[in-house]
């Protein structure tokens, strides 16, 4: 069975090669990447100083987590001003230097934009509280009267994804209990009402503000959100979002009108591309039930790409991986886009821990599987995103004390289940003890989340010095991906393989094979290994190992 990504049928043909179609983008979680000021929090100057490291790794671009002015109730995903930089992270001048340095190194820069909700400290929401019911300021949000005697019951039964009801009641200017407002995440993140044309007009200004400062595109938070059912009816399963921590309430997510927003945003990007030939990218965080629904977001006049989370969520099983990859290639690549593969991000348990049987930081099986999964992802047709620290093989920090946890999920529920602090602990750069070179502060400076002692084993200096490390696996894979024309866009043809093994041909004798089992099996192809995730004797594919082979014609 051969799966082929069709020829690009996008709107702009300014470039013979559209860089985003097979790009590898590195997600920078700014507050945990590198601290230049000594306050224990990463910043834009820290990102700039880390660019040579990323260039050496071989990525095509970076995606920056939100650095806008924010009270940091959800670490920047509660935006108080979309057109500035929070002093915690720097200023607009520092941002300009970062973009210029990145472009000199050939690295694209994507910003994280949050259009579904803003901060309760945003000037619009403050105006809404001050104005009272029925005014234009409240029409920018979802304000509604409560139900029951005295309006004491929320307008509907929806629950927030981070726990608790999705509605909060306000106290009016005269001191009386008033209307309720909708927030699908936390009360500090009121949802914007995209049925109000003023919202779309404002985000036009936001896009142009950053495009004029040289950015190469945007990662769009909650891209299947924005519009809610206009009647705001009760949900038949009100706890679904909170239970799954996913966008599954069909009344609050994936409304048909959202596609008009992405068509318009695409036209804005095309306008800038037409000026200078530099294509700007829109990549969406799209959580929808099926690959077919996902494909609707990446039609030729909408988003360029959307993260395909099904691979991230798949259990370590050859049959499941094959099914997920096949559906993505058929439904998503069939639109003319390319699949955007991810194994991890700032909201997920780190890959090494997720794949480990014990669920602890020391799982050797989890590390072996994560290495194999990395080679598999880099061999698939399309684009790939790497979350910072994955190239170091960082496991999840699973034993952070309650008193240091900052995730609003923990604050709202009191539960440690599925909290996200453990994947956000600041990166280790050098040395044998915290802060591991993360902060430039005086001795004893503390990162905003504590780093465990075993982080020393994963520090970037040690990883780069050890040719057997995760870092070298990623670096070598990225070099081969760039040098071999079969990788990136193109075809995928499944090959016959022993049970528990996936093997596919990328053309001209280049084959990727992954053994999902625990025992060695005969290699499914003959040829010379170009790269393997672990020891790979001739003719044998050990368990939890991936390898790339060539018959000889595929050498770079």
Walk me through this protein's architecture.
It is a single chain. The protein is of the alpha/beta class. Helices cover 26% and strands 15% of the residues. It contains 15 helices and 19 strands. It has helices at residues 44-49, 51-57, 92-104, 123-131, 197-211, 240-244, 258-276, 291-296, 310-313, 318-332, 351-354, 364-379, 408-413, 460-465, 470-483, and strands at residues 2-4, 24-28, 61-64, 108-113, 143-144, 167-171, 177-182, 217-220, 281-284, 305-308, 340-342, 383-387, 491-494, 501-507, 510-515, 521-522, 528-532, 540-541, 545-550. The strands form four sheets. An eight-stranded parallel β-barrel has the order 2-3-4-8-9-10-11-12. It has a six-stranded antiparallel beta sheet with strand order 1-13-14-15-19-17. Mean pLDDT is 92; it is low at 6-16.
Topology readout:
Elements lengths: L1 E3 L19 E5 L15 H6 L1 H7 L3 E4 L27 H13 L3 E6 L9 H9 L11 E2 L22 E5 L5 E6 L14 H15 L5 E4 L19 H5 L13 H19 L4 E4 L6 H6 L8 E4 L1 H4 L4 H15 L7 E3 L8 H4 L9 H16 L3 E5 L20 H6 L46 H6 L4 H14 L7 E4 L6 E7 L2 E6 L5 E2 L5 E5 L7 E2 L3 E6 L6
Parallel strand pairs: 2-3, 2-12, 3-4, 4-8, 8-9, 9-10, 10-11, 11-12
Antiparallel strand pairs: 1-13, 5-7, 6-7, 13-14, 14-15, 15-19, 16-18, 17-19
Helix pairs in contact: 5-7, 12-15
């Amino acid at each position: 069975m051969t799966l082929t990504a069709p020829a690009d049928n996008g709107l702009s043909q300014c470039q013979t090669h559209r860089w985003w179609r097979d790009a590898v983008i590195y997600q920078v979680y700014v507050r945990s990447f590198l601290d230049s000021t000594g306050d224990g929090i990463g910043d834009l100057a820290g990102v700039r100083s880390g660019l040579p490291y990323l260039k050496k790794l071989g990525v095509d671009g970076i995606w920056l987590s939100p650095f806008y002015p924010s009270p940091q109730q959800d670490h920047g995903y509660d935006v108080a001003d979309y057109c500035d930089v929070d002093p915690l992270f720097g200023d607009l001048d520092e941002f300009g230097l970062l973009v210029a340095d990145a472009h000199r190194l050939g690295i694209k820069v994507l910003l994280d934009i949050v259009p579904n909700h803003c901060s309760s400290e945003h000037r619009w929401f403050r105006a809404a509280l001050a104005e009272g019911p029925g005014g234009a300021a409240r029409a920018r949000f979802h304000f509604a009267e409560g139900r029951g005697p005295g309006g004491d019951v929320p307008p509907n039964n929806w629950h927030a994804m981070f726990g608790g009801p999705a509605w909060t009641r306000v106290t009016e200017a005269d001191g009386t209990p008033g209307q309720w407002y909708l927030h699908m995440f936390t009360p500090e993140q009121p949802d914007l009402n995209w049925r109000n044309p003023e919202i779309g007009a404002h985000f036009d200004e936001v896009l142009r503000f950053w495009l004029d400062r040289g950015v190469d595109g945007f990662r769009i938070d909650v891209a299947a959100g924005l519009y809610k059912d206009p009647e705001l009816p009760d949900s038949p399963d009100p706890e679904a979002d909170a239970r799954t921590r996913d966008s599954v309430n069909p009344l609050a997510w994936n409304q048909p009108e959202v596609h008009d927003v992405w068509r318009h945003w695409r036209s804005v990007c095309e306008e800038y591309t037409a000026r200078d030939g530099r294509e700007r990218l829109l990549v969406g965080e799209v959580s929808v039930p099926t690959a077919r629904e996902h494909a609707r977001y990446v039609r030729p006049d909408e988003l360029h790409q959307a993260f395909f989370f099904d691979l991230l969520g798949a259990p370590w099983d050859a049959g499941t991986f094959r099914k997920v990859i096949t559906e993505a290639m058929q439904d998503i690549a069939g639109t003319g886009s390319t699949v955007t593969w991810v194994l991890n991000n700032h909201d997920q348990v780190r890959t090494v821990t997720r794949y480990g049987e014990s669920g602890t930081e020391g799982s050797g099986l989890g590390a072996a599987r994560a290495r194999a999964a990395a080679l598999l992802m880099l061999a698939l047709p399309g684009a790939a995103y790497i979350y910072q620290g994955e190239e170091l093989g960082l496991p999840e920090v699973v034993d952070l004390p309650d008193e240091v946890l900052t995730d609003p999920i923990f604050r709202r529920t009191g539960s440690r289940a599925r909290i996200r602090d453990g994947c956000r602990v600041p990166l280790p750069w050098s040395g044998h003890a915290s802060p591991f070179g993360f902060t430039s502060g005086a001795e004893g400076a503390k990162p905003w989340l504590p780093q465990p002692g075993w982080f020393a084993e994963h520090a970037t200096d040690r990883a780069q010095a050890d040719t057997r490390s995760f870092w070298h696996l990623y670096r070598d894979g990225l070099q081969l991906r760039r040098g071999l024309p079969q990788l990136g866009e193109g075809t995928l043809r499944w090959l016959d393989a022993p049970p528990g093994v996936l093997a596919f041909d990328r053309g001209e004798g280049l084959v990727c094979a992954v053994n999902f089992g625990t025992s060695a099996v005969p290699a499914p192809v003959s040829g010379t290994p170009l790269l393997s995730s672990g020891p790979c004797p001739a003719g044998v594919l050990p368990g939890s190992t991936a390898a790339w082979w060539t018959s000889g014609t595929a050498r770079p």
